[in-house]
Amino acid sequence: MILLLLLLCPLALGFITLCSGRWAPLLALCVVIINFCEALYAWIVGLNLFLEPWIAEWGVHVHLRLDGLSFAMITVAHIMALSAIIGSWAKIREKIALFYANILWLLAGVIGVLLSVDLLLFFVFWEIMIIPLYVSTTLWGGAHRLFASVQFLIFTQVSGLIMLLSILALYFAHHAQTGIFSFDFDILAHTELSASSELWILLGFLAAFLVKLPAFGFHVWLPAIFEASPIAPLLVGIMVKTGAYGILRFAIPLFPHACSLIAPFMMALGALGIIYGAVLAFSQNDLRKILAYATISHMGVVLMALFSMNALAYNGVIILLVTEALSTGGLLLLFSHLGEFDLKNLGGLWARVPKLSVVGLFLIMSSIGLPFMGNFVGEWLAMVGIFSVSIGAACIMALGLVLSAIYYLRLIQKIFFGPLLSSNSITVELSFLQMLLFSGLISLLLGIGFYPEPLLSVIDQTNFVVKSGSYE
Amino acid sequence: MLWCVPALPLVSFLILLLWQSFLPRAAQAVIGVIFIIMSFIVSIVIGVGVSGQPAYHEYLWTWIPPSHIGFVLDPLSFLMIVVITLVGSLVAIYSTRFMGDDPSMGRFFAYLNLFVASMLVLVLADNFLLLFAGWEGVGLCSYLLIGFWYQKPQTSKAANKAFIMTRIGDVFLLLGIIYLSLELGTVNIIEAMSQMIELWPPGTFAASLIASCFLIGAMGKSAQVPLQTWLPDAMLGPTPASALIHAATMVTAGVYLMARTAPLFALAPQVQSAVMIVGAVTLVIGSLYALFQSDLKRVLAYSTISQIGYMFLALGAGFPGAAMFHFMTHAFFKALLFLGAGVIGEALHHEYNMYKMGGLRQKLPLTYYTFLVGSASLAGLPLVTAGFYSKELILGVTYAAAGPLFWAIGCLGAFFTALYVGRMVILVFFGTAKTEVSMQPGWPMTLPLVILAVLSIFSGGFEGRLLAYLGGINHPMVDYVAYIAASAIPLFGLLFAWFIFHKQSPKKARTRESRESFDFDQIYHFLFIKPYVKIASLLQSDGFNAVYLWLSHIIGMFHNLLSRTQTGRIEQYLTVVVASAITVIGYLVLS
Fold first, then answer.
1. pLDDT for the residue numbered B511
2. B177 Cα to chain A: minimum distance (Å)
3. B289 in contact with A at a CB cutoff of 8 Å?
4. Quick one: which H or E segment has residue B246?
5. ipTM of the complex
6. Judged by CB atoms within 8 Å, which residues 26-85 of B form the interface with A?
7. Beta-carbon contacts below 8 Å between A and B
8. Are B258 and B190 in contact (CB under 8 A)?
9. What digits encode the pLDDT tens for the residues A9-22?
10. How do A49-55 and B56-62 pair as beta strands?
């Protein structure tokens, strides 16, 4: 029951927020905090299942499950929602209530995606998640917001529809075999498929996940929406991560044979993403675009690790998803606070806003992957996993580490170091509330960096349905 | 208790980072110094307390499984921590005056403490993963210290260069560690070493591969050819930071790594000889470059590169003890020389060009004498200096292990070393004064100089005891002719320097500078940086945007085509309906 509450609370309270006018930010903040407490309670007490029929004759159930993977990502979702609310505290001046309601609905959608066991339910939330982002970008976005949001909508909707076709194909294949209509993942996982149909259905799922990831070639929507969206931290923090989540939760357990068949291609795609993202991040002059391409590069690592198909790499991926959300999300938040995104107009900020600069330096160093700063834990595990499968792939990941140092140091040099430009007028030091928020993010990253054991033990309680030895 | 050694400077770093604005400047300086000194005292106390035991372990908590945060104290790490904390303390004391007028002194001390803490983690780590953490921490701190005066564009460039070049080595080290952990199933250093001796015969592929990765990692950190170009540029940071980077932390990390994993290198003979070649090439190239510099600190930087080359030579010869002995003496005399150079720079309004110095013998007498001691030790003046004993030992073991060729290269390097040392001392202290001396150093600056000068002379006397302590290798028996020849070379070099540089006019000397134009930097710029920037600028607009735009164009064309059929004229619609009906019926009838 509490899982359903976890889902409905932000959804329903979103509507109340809509009518709360000036008080919307505060209300939204409270909702997020209360909701997180619910999640924490459900996790600690172990209320981790919910199963009720929805459309029984079609075999659709409201089947929710909270396990290590979903709990870790739900936690991150709440943190990022909190950051997005605090980050836009005084910045949004029009239709305030709708803006914060949007954040809550987005959160609800993400929680639904992370809890659903039923594939149709999963698809519904997958689509719901997109709408608040589209709305918030078109209403409050920056430059080229219409183009960016429509592009985003088309990419995600088209790929989502392909996934729906795959879900239906799997549904009917299972019915033909057993005579039972069911969308439940636990049941569908036992479907026997011929090699070719397994491959085709997998490709349908991957269409949606690779676009969301985003993988090399499917990435063009990301830089555009990063530039336009007012809630980009939330986007990179959690929406992008649902692509990797989908592969880990559904694609690999449902279609292990087809996955190992296409694993080399997927790893190559990941490798291309690592290099391409890194080079493009180096060539950009807009802070948000640099971070967008950096995300593409990081997600290349995630894709490579996912398709190296071993338990160590999966652990690495989950930790990477968490820490990368915190560090890149934090950076986006920090930059949106600057209000100036063109590298040409920045420089020498250390002299003017030292606190902000220290926070920025830390988050960038964490993203580069320095030990004890969070990301290293996941990178190490992923790299060991990848190395045990393919030395060449590990070498490309290593090359990515060098290239990431190059574009991130360029970023530090252009923003914080150098002479203070007379033209730039940035004098806004972080407020107390923001300092609190960033201290929280930094402590979390340091905590994971120094003592990853708690997070690893949460991940260990992940409930994978094992089908012919895809997980050890 | 052992954890206190790295934790103390870390605490100081945190205090300075978090409460800097609440502390008066004097308190910042005291905190910056006192924690490193405490760390030094704790090191000595623990070292004396556990002497006799082979190794003292301390586990703290599980980190990334299977590794943990754990430290080990054995003779090698004890030597390292003593040198690091001792030199670190002296540099910190010196900095209280050197950085005394800098508005961001607190930040400097914060970095300095983090630097020392990282280095201590590196040398005390009992597993490779934690060692790597310290390794990266050292890289980060050197980046921060080199870029300390961030307003100047060159400093942040130099800092980036240092970070990226060492990072290239770092990822090789990381790959090596991963391969080792997958092959042996452990990341514990001591366990891994004993296992590989049992499991792998000499010349095993795995051993060679891992050793090569470690070698490249060490070359990056220790600034060996061809990854050396970041070190001379690193001079743009504050001088005490340079002293620390060159003497106790950072560049010696590579030497430590290879001394620590000496059994691995013994299993990979080809890599072992590669180490030797790298060392030999570096020591000659480094000393040659040092000969043509006009900036005092750059001379010292190239001299560090060259001296680390000697340590690599000893490691390649299979005598890590000799390398560690030279590491110790080098730490003392190089720190002394850098701190001395800092005094000179301060006295001459931040002037480091040697052609604008001269005649400082009378103006800065104490600095002159201590600097002279350091120079003599660097040149290896026979019998009286520590540098002589350690360099002789390296030449001796090289002769014993690799024959006369490498020995001759080492001697050639020693000759060049004496030559550039002589040139440096003559240009700085002799001749006519060209810049006015504006200040005299206070006691916080001179005290470290004196202590280091004493150590630069007498630390040579520990040779036998140190080698026995580290693992019982003795001075190998050397051909006496070779020994005497090698001892005489520094003297020749110094004499030669006197004759060349004594009466040279600065004008003529300055034209020499142009010969440095063909440089590694330019090769790298041409081979890597330019193509990379070119590729990046070609890809900048992200071609996939065009692909998808084109796709949407095609879809748009179909849309136009179809929408044109919706003309709204009934007669056209009827024509189409009738025509298609006829076609369908005709098809059905005929088939």
1. 44
2. 10
3. no
4. helix B239-247
5. 0.90
6. 61-65, 69
7. 110
8. no
9. 888 888 888 888 78
10. unpaired
